[in-house]
Amino acid sequence: MYKKTGILFLVLILPVFIYLGLKAFGTNHFSLPRYIPAIDSTTGEIKMAKRLNPRWNESEMDTVFQTIPDFSLTDESGKVFSAKSLQGKIYVTSFFFTRCGTICPKITSQLSRVQDTFLGDPEVQLLSISVDPKFDQPEKLALYSKRFDANKGQWHFLTGEKKMIYPLVLKGFHVPLADASEYDAAIKNPDETFIHSERLVLVDKEGIIRGFYDGTDKKEVDRLLVEIKVLKNIYSTDGSN
């Protein structure tokens, strides 16, 4: 008798509990890593803060991460481009210069794929920051943007003062950058002068770096495309990151 009752329970009742469990906890929660923890300048330790809405499986405290600092540059139209215009946006940043004959065309071509995938999506923006700002004035950037069919208003080519761009790239986006002519005046070839990263940097709506990708590698850019979609899904499903 007891054996039959147990079997009946398994057959009729257990599926109900499984269904309720899946309904309560079975929602897919995609996640992407965050990069560059903020360091307390007095203690040298990673900063921590209380989570606003922790999930059931998350700790009360969470790591605080650095955000891209505020900046003001000039776009290919000669207009001021402020970091404030990126608030609430997901964006991908690349680093290039128009005289570059090595990796820059490859990177920009791959970034064109990102544009094509998210063309007209107001949530996704693209930035290409010149590391040769003295030469790359807005008219040079405008010609370069046309060469790659950049969608005006979504893909921004930026220049500005070197004293602002170089610290922003090094300490804000955390990618390597150097002007070799500062150390060796004999260097004249632009491709030997500006030593910059091939990385694309994915930044979320809060200004936190969510990924680094080799902009010359199609598979890496394929991963970027997927992870932008994951990030969009995270925002659309629970409004968090």
From TrEMBL:
Could you list this entry's UniProt keywords, alphabetically sorted.
Copper
Q: InterPro entries under this entry?
A: SCO1/SenC, Thioredoxin-like_sf, Thioredoxin_domain
Query: What CDD domains would the database entry show?
Result: SCO
Task: Give every Thioredoxin domain span.
Answer: 62-233
Q: What protein family is recorded?
A: Belongs to the SCO1/2 family.
- Matching PANTHER family: ELECTRON TRANSPORT PROTIN SCO1/SENC FAMILY MEMBER, LINALOOL DEHYDRATASE_ISOMERASE DOMAIN-CONTAINING PROTEIN
Q: What is this protein called?
A: SCO family protein
What organism does the UniProt record list as the source? Aquirufa novilacunae
